[in-house]
Design a protein that fits this description.
Two copies of one chain form a homodimer.
Chain A: H1 7-14, H2 18-25, H3 33-46, H4 52-59, E1 64-69, H5 75-91, E2 94-99, H6 104-116, E3 121-124, H7 134-141, E4 146-149, E5 159-163, H8 165-178, E6 184-188, H9 194-209, E7 219-221, H10 225-236, E8 244-247, H11 250-262, E9 272-274, E10 291-293, H12 296-312, E11 321-324, E12 327-329
Parallel strand pairs in A: 1-2, 1-3, 3-4, 4-5, 5-11, 6-7, 6-8, 8-9
Antiparallel strand pairs in A: 10-12
Chain A binds a DNA duplex (30 and 30 nucleotides) through residues 6-8, 16-23, 26, 28-32, 35, 50-51, 53-60.
Amino acid sequence: MSSPITIKDIAKALNISASTVSRALKDHPDISRETKKAVNDLAAKLRYKPNAVALSLKNSRTNTIGVIVPELVHFFFSSVISGIEDVAYDAGYNVMVCQSNEMYSREIINTQALDSNRVEGALVSISKETHDFAHLLYLEENGIPLVFFDRAPEELDVDKVIIDDYKAAYNATTHLIETGCKRIAHLAAPQTLGIGIQRMAGYKKALEDHGITYREDWVIEADSFELAGDATRNLMHLPTPPDAIFAVNDMTAVGAMKTLQRMSIAVPQKVAIIGFSAGFFSDITTPTLSSVDQHGYEMGVEAAKLLLQRIETPVEGKHKTQYIDTHLVLRESTKRKN
Amino acid sequence: MSSPITIKDIAKALNISASTVSRALKDHPDISRETKKAVNDLAAKLRYKPNAVALSLKNSRTNTIGVIVPELVHFFFSSVISGIEDVAYDAGYNVMVCQSNEMYSREIINTQALDSNRVEGALVSISKETHDFAHLLYLEENGIPLVFFDRAPEELDVDKVIIDDYKAAYNATTHLIETGCKRIAHLAAPQTLGIGIQRMAGYKKALEDHGITYREDWVIEADSFELAGDATRNLMHLPTPPDAIFAVNDMTAVGAMKTLQRMSIAVPQKVAIIGFSAGFFSDITTPTLSSVDQHGYEMGVEAAKLLLQRIETPVEGKHKTQYIDTHLVLRESTKRKN
DNA sequence: AACGTAACCGCAATCGATTGCGAAACATAT
DNA sequence: ATATGTTTCGCAATCGATTGCGGTTACGTT
């Protein structure tokens, strides 16, 4: 009902000036013990809370960071945000969250909103539509540190926290090889996306390092539950079908698994499957799905830490690319090492 | 690098007063055409953006709403937040997100942060530890509208957007009965939580209405993937084990399903299972999981709409309880009706 | 008695934008 | 030439909190 208590209200009630109240509240030596007590007592009674907005204006510090993600409803992104929020909380920062819904136009508006609200830094994972980064780089030009996570622009000198897709794909493929698979297929992401290219490259390199010839007909672009069905059927109808599938993400892996089961092909005995972490539902398939854990929470933590560091001490020189370690989560959809 | 452009910068550069700049920017009739053009041109050139913080202070309107959830990393909660964000975006509001991590103490601090930051309203789903709501109700007493969603205090006159847990549980249980199950167990949430109580009550009522006796040993408090394992084993080791399980959420349902499979008990033939909340991973289990869809996104939308309405026109009289429709999503883990 | 000096506290400016009111400058009317 | 009107703009206060600087007491010292 009533508007919030201000320092003036206390001053008026005690018949002293606002400055005295302010000083009393922060235990300034200029203020007498009695005055301090009176002020603090009344402040407590009225439940005075400093107006963060006024402080922000005065100090040019909002204690708020902004986050833009393509979509909130993704296990991975919500994990990242959770990590961000925990770090921010510990550091006394608030988190303003926006989703671009994979739209370039909305990402721009989100960026401007964060700018207008004078967030002290921004954490961004770009939308699928975004190929121009001017709106974001503009933030940094204006003194708002910017850290990309997961989906970051390639070939740009910006701060980013990402996973080593190449290495992770290499490890996943190697695991298939080491558990006895020799005909390894890859359900790939579009080769326009950085992750698509990197994961493909890691896959190829693993084959090469283990003396396995790369076969083009074992690689199909398919990166969703739906697309995985057709792709898998096509693979299994080849003269020499694969005995393992490395899928570019978990939904694709599950799509392949479901399809194989419908074809009565045993997983992992006939065909092993490994995915790439989009979520913890790898636990709940039958068989459970081996996968590459992307450590979303940790990525959020590291990205937030880096951002806070940039806020404290702005970049000198080159920006940093930080890799989050991935690791193989070995479950039932791949065979055991012997 | 340089601090953001202010209205004064433009005024100084054009040798006019700040008031004139302000008026020129908003097309006030008092300002001449030439002045307006000069101001607008320079503003565009310098990419002037009004300082939202200063405006907030002046207008006592931050255009920001706060959200507190127990945990971000939940399909349901992230769905709700997504709905909230979309509504807020359309209305020109920003969203400040906090997670309590199921801790009462942290919920309090979150609340104070939102208060200090003068959010114009708050959307809250309470933590498991929260039994006292003073900190939240205090917001509303201070003119910050408050809308609870999903986890709301019972028996309190507050605005809330929830599902009809009682009805949904009744329907889920009834479906099990109608598909021939007669010994229906319930893996329940803590009976301190409203949802726990309501879902339990709906379960009981369904049994009663169909002439099935309630048995205490078929009800176990277990609301996570991990807890479901032990609970399910215990259930199946009873002299008369159940032939169906109604689980309080999907993760619990999946935990039960996995355990049954490990015990070589056929789902749904020997034991049918129905979950709650229809996370999209209900699709990928084998068998796929029947569940109650909670419509998280829609709940977020409705809660945000209600909050914005409260912000526009504060409550007169009693608060509102709004129910989001649920519906049964029938998949393979329950039997078909005949 | 006169002066010095702590001890305490208030004035006013500041952060950026807005806005009521008043004031120039010029034009038109009487 | 005086009065009235119109156009265009600036002053200053405001939002809430902070802080340098100056001012007022009261007390002690010589």
